[in-house]
Amino acid sequence: MIDTIIGSDKEGIKIITVVLMVLILLFSVFYSTPQLYQEDRQTYAYSGAGSEDEPHIITDIHGLQAAKDDLSGHYVLYNDIDATETRYWNEGEGFEPIGTEEVPFEGTFDGRGHDIHGLYINRSTDDVGLFGYLGIDGTITNVSVTNAEVTGGRNTAILLGTNRGNVTYASASGRVDGENRVGGLVGYILYSSLSHTWADATVKGEELVGGLAGYSLYGEIYKSYSSGDVHGEEKVGGLVGYQTGVGFIDKSYATGEVSGEYFVGGLLGSSRNRVFRSYALGDVRGIDFVGGLVGQKEGSWVIESYAAGSVKGEGSVGGLIGDNSGTIESSFWDMESTGQVESRGGVGKNTTEMMDLNTFIADDWNITEVEDENSRDTGYAWNIVNNRTYPFLSWEETRYPTETSRGLPFWMIPLFGSIASAILVSLLLYKKDREYSKGKI
User: Fold this and answer.
1) pTM of the entire structure?
2) Which of 45, 166, 307, 355 could lock onto 293 through a cystine, CB 3.0 to 4.6 A?
3) Contact indicator for 104, 134 with CB cutoff of 8 Å
4) Does one domain contain both 241 and 316?
5) Residue 159: how many CA atoms within 13 Å on its side-chain side?
6) Does residue 280 sit in the same domain as residue 422?
7) How confident is the model at residue 213 (pLDDT cuts 50, 70, 90)?
8) 118-133 pLDDT, tens per residue?
């Protein structure tokens, strides 16, 4: 029949091509879209069995909220999520955090580089965030939560209230307001870790308040940073409010402004644990125990670190450390930019010296010179543009494992499939038409 149409009317080629394109488009959209449970979309807006091999596939905010009903499941985001409607949920309380202390989230959540935009939570309870409580076996990775507004009690943050699991390649931006243990990304780190994480949030609280995390107890923070402003009363830090127990902060930094009353620091408000290869650039304001890097250091070490933000306070004020009973090695502060000529540890330098590669080589820093601010030599912990910049960490700006982990946008998969198929059909029809015109059929 097709041969007859082609032979009698070349316009038939165009008609068949259009029809096939429409059919292929409908077919590809239907079969490439995760099939949703239609009986109750508000509760079950995801597909997949929830196993490791066949995870739940989340395509919208309703599917994300439904994760609270399977706290041991495996989840992946199929596309970016618009969460702005959560402002009107639950009589103004917004999104309900996934997991509680009694029943934590013990599954895996892989954002695949996608973004959750406009999350809103306004609750007076504890463990508040997109996830309320992440259990020991829980994992969150490769996701960003942007333009969020989160209010809660203790253990409050944008991504996660309390972390006892593993969080990697995750970020948050927006505003956070809580009581104690308040952070931009995580409120409370408890016997757990953060790696390759960052936050750009305005964070407000009372005690234990930090740009990335409020309180780290036996926690490990690696290659992470905060760039938001932090405001609190006691134990307030640009990255973490308070750090204690066996753990560390390594290759991390903070750049936001920090203000509080007691135990206030550009990186840490108060610390009883190890700090390696880290720095703070934000301005710091407080009353007592105020430092450009750490407000109060109780024991343990600070090694290969520096501070360069303005520091102001009334008692126990230092360019690097406000008050110290620990060990400070190979660490510096900029006396000119901090406005402080004294510190309870570290070595003060002028700005020219702080931008001189030789200053740090002389103290055995793992550092090398690079051509400009956009260059990186990851064979060293630190890079510097000699005589132009302070040292910066060679991993900076590496936010996700690979860009390809983001995948194609949701709507482009069926579209590309349809276009490719239609082109192939059209070429075959065109070839048949050419053969006909030459008398081959």
Assistant:
1) 0.80
2) 307
3) yes
4) yes
5) 37
6) no
7) very high
8) 999 999 999 999 999 9
317 within some domain: yes
Residue 306 and residue 437 in one domain: no
Question: Would residue 427 count as lying in a domain?
Answer: yes
Q: Is residue 311 located within the same domain as residue 436?
A: no
Closest to 308 in 3D by CA, of 366, 378, 355, 270: 355
- How far apart CA 150 and CA 87 sit, in angstroms, is 10
Q: Which regions of 53-156 does DSSP assign to beta strands (E)?
A: 56-58, 74-77, 81-82, 108-117, 120-122, 131-134, 139-151
Rounded distance between C-alpha atoms, residue 417 and residue 240, angstroms: 47
Q: How many domains does the chain have?
A: 2
Q: What whole-number distance in Å separates Cα of residue 149 and Cα of residue 132? A: 15
- Mapping DSSP to helix (H, G, I), strand (E, B) and coil, where does residue 291 land? strand
Structure tokens at 125: 């309870």
Taking the C-alpha atoms of residue 234 and residue 264, their distance in angstroms, rounded to an integer, is 7
**How far apart (Å, rounded) are the C-alpha atoms in residues 210 and 228?**
9
Tell me the one-letter amino acid at 154: R
What CA–CA distance (Å, rounded) separates 237 from 191? 20
Looking at 236-343, list the stretches that DSSP marks H as alpha helix, in order from N- to C-terminal side.
Answer: 335-338
With b for 16 or more beta-carbon neighbours within 10 A and e for fewer, the 197-212 pattern comes to bbbbbbbbbbbbbbbb
For 341-368, what is each residue's pLDDT tens digit? 999 999 999 999 999 999 999 999 999 9
C-alpha pair distances (Å), 435 with each of 9, 48, 212, 426, 428: 15, 47, 68, 14, 11
CA distance 114 to 76: 10
> What residue numbers bound the domain in which 8 lies?
1-35+412-441
Query: Does some domain include residue 14?
Result: yes
* 429 and 290 housed in the same domain: no
Q: Are both 376 and 307 inside the same structural domain?
A: yes
Q: Is residue 162 part of a domain?
A: no
